[in-house]
Write a structure and sequence with these properties.
By secondary structure, this protein is of the alpha+beta class. Helices cover 40% and strands 25% of the residues. It contains 12 helices and 12 strands. The strands form 3 sheets. Strands 7-6-5-4-8 form a 5-stranded antiparallel β-sheet. Strands 10-11-9-12 form a 4-stranded antiparallel β-sheet. Strand 2 and strand 3 form a beta hairpin. Helix 1 (2-17) crosses helix 4.
Amino acid sequence: MAIAKAERLMNLALCLLGTRRPLSKRELRGSIEAYLEAGSDDSFNRMFERDKDDLRELGLVIETVEGLDGDTGYLARRDSNRLPAITLDAEEAAALGVAARVWQQARLAGAASGALQKLRAAGMPEAEDSYEAHHSALEPRIPAHEAAFEPLMLACRDRRPVAFDYRKASAARPEQRQVEPWTLECWRGHWYLAGYDRDRGAERVFRLSRISGRVRSRTGSFTAPVPDVSTVRETVETWAGETATRSALIRLRAGSGYPLRAKALSSRELGDGWDELEIPYGHGLDAWLVEFGPDVVVREPADLRADVVDRLRAVAKG
């Protein structure tokens, strides 16, 4: 729904910017497919007035002109809608370059690449050679394979409640969740949604890979206050296991589990192709350890071992 509206607004803006004379509502309705599909004149008029107001709120200067025949026309003169010259220093240009590379696997990749080309054409400086030389081999990318990523990103932006089916790691079947989405955060290569769970009346964090089916929009406004970005980020990190309160002892198969090794507080060889690691233990560690399957065996504490076994059994049951 949000994508369709964005496309409709873009088409209307292009029509208004691409004309040399005012266009009437009738002409605009005949030129934009979404308007042609409007069920009635009243429906089209309401849609058009909302779209026109949205474009003006976004900064587009739309003129209303009364024609000799009594019809009202609309146009957006290009000289009234030109942006000021873009001035970026080398560091800002490098930051934008990195940001554009990040979304290589998202549907936004084309838009990011096109925007970068336009900025360079407008005079944005290229990144320094030293930056390219040192960072080209370690080019940052944030994968966004999950189908839920884009609708949730738009819902966070528009402050729009959503519903989706979610399967907890310890559950065999998904259940519906009604959520007021706050923000998306990437942690250890996985995307998480932080928001207010209406059914539970509390903040919750959801891993996108466990969302099944379609993300559905809901009407109405948020019922709970939205925390600031730094607070939400801390919530995600704590929920996903970044904040450790104690340590755990695990056995790890030699030559595997390098992300675990990078977090290890200590490590020693056990022989027979196994190593022993002491790693930080915080909320969500059990879910992370399960991802390494048979390459990890939890030795202590007992409650972490039990949680990992429960998760593995749930996965085995399907």
